[in-house]
Task: inverse folding
């Protein structure tokens, strides 16, 4: 059952006098596959509250490789916030639990964060769990910021509907990463500019992979030149995909697209190269992992045909600072979703500062105001700067690493797009051409884009 507002008020009073559940994890904790969390303790401040972020991540399952990079980013962000004074002079902590990209386990993790850990806000989760759990999340009345959810399902849902003082129309989910429409619109523009006419799609059956593939196909609809010849959906976890590849390439294709988990992608791409199809492949942007390329280099060497990728382009004023901090902090690869997590946590912390409270309701009501520009707001690029301006009585507009980070009424952001050259030999993704927000907007505001998504 969702926690009542009275229960939350009582919970926050108890936390305010220093009591916090002993089972709660903190930054740097390790999580186990059953959804439980284990951790080391951290020192708490006596001058302010302990603010708890409940992070639901795919620590096991087919997307676990992304958490190798996200984990250090979360730790680094929390340490940075606390070094800069902490929320309301207190301490930000984290309970990190494993969803395993399973709907039932993700639901359990949310309940554990809310009812056992007494989290103040939620962070993480992806399209494969958030889409089927949408109504469940609404009933929790708990702000959730996701750096992972790309699904176009979120395009018309979430946020505060532009009325932060009226919580009756709130939908509680904020997306700190650009939606799939940004990367797929960039792909459609890139395919057009490459002279592609006929293409095929091979995708997995999870909600996230289907949603991204639907967004890709929808993005090609406004471009008369582009024609999808064939779409093959495959069950994950197979030892071979030769029959599916054979069906995909029955007709002449100029390009094919793969959207599937990294383990299965390795199998599919190895068999694509060994099959000698000779058709370039475009990777879903979640596969922007050097580990994938390193494994392919070991199994196939240099592929016979080109590999490429289109994605959103992190382009905020903090981007280079965050990248440099991260590279000094860990030897893990920096991925685009890391910038989104950095921004999402900062938005929540500045919302707490503006509200003077760490209650879920206070966070929900203040995320919009600290991330939307007004005539009198001061642009800030750090938690410390935001605290100072708010203490001085000024309104602020947070400027992020992903983008300028201006949340829409539905809790979404936008960025430009980019093309990447993919080199298996060097195990690198090299940014090439920038695609403007205006060109991307032309695709995703076209009626043909919306019509396809509405019918699929």
Result:
């Amino acid at each position: 059952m969702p926690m009542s507002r009275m229960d939350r008020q009582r919970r926050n009073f108890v936390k305010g006098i220093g009591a916090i559940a002993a089972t709660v994890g903190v930054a740097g904790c390790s999580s186990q596959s059953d959804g439980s969390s284990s951790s080391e303790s951290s020192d708490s401040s006596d001058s302010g509250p302990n603010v708890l972020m409940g992070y639901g991540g795919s620590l096991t399952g087919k997307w676990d490789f992304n958490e190798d990079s996200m984990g250090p980013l979360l730790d680094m962000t929390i340490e940075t916030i606390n070094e800069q004074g902490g929320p309301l002079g207190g301490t930000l902590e984290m309970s990190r639990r494993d969803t395993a990209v399973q709907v039932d386990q993700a639901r359990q993790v949310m309940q554990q964060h809310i009812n056992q850990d007494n989290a103040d806000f939620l962070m993480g989760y992806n399209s494969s769990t958030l889409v089927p759990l949408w109504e469940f999340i609404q009933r929790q009345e708990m702000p959730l910021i996701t750096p992972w959810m790309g699904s176009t399902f979120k395009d018309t849902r979430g946020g505060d509907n532009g009325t932060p003082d009226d919580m009756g129309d709130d939908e509680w989910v904020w997306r700190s990463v650009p939606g799939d429409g940004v990367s797929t619109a960039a792909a459609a523009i890139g395919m057009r500019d490459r002279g592609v006419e006929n293409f095929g799609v091979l995708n997995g059956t999870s909600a996230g992979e289907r949603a991204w593939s639907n967004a890709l196909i929808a993005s090609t609809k406004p471009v008369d030149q582009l024609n999808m010849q064939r779409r093959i959906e495959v069950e994950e976890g197979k030892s071979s995909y030769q029959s599916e590849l054979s069906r995909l390439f029955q007709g002449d294709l100029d390009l094919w697209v793969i959207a599937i988990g990294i383990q299965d992608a390795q199998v599919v791409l190895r068999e694509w190269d060994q099959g000698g199809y000779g058709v370039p492949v475009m990777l879903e942007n979640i596969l922007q992992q050097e580990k994938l390329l390193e494994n392919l280099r070991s199994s196939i060497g240099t592929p016979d045909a080109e590999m490429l990728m289109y994605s959103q382009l992190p382009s905020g004023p903090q981007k280079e600072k965050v990248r440099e901090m991260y590279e000094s902090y860990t030897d893990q690869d920096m991925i685009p979703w890391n910038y989104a997590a950095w921004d999402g946590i900062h938005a929540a912390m500045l919302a707490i500062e503006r509200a003077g409270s760490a209650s879920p309701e206070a966070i929900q009501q203040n995320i919009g105001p600290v991330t939307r520009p007004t005539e009198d707001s001061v642009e800030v690029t750090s938690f410390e700067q935001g605290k100072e301006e708010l203490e001085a009585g000024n309104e602020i507009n947070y400027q992020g690493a992903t983008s300028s980070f201006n949340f829409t009424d539905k809790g979404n952001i936008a960025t430009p797009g980019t093309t990447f050259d993919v080199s298996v030999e060097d195990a690198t993704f090299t940014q090439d051409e920038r695609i403007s927000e205006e060109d991307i907007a032309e695709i995703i505001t076209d009626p043909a884009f919306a019509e396809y998504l509405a019918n699929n």
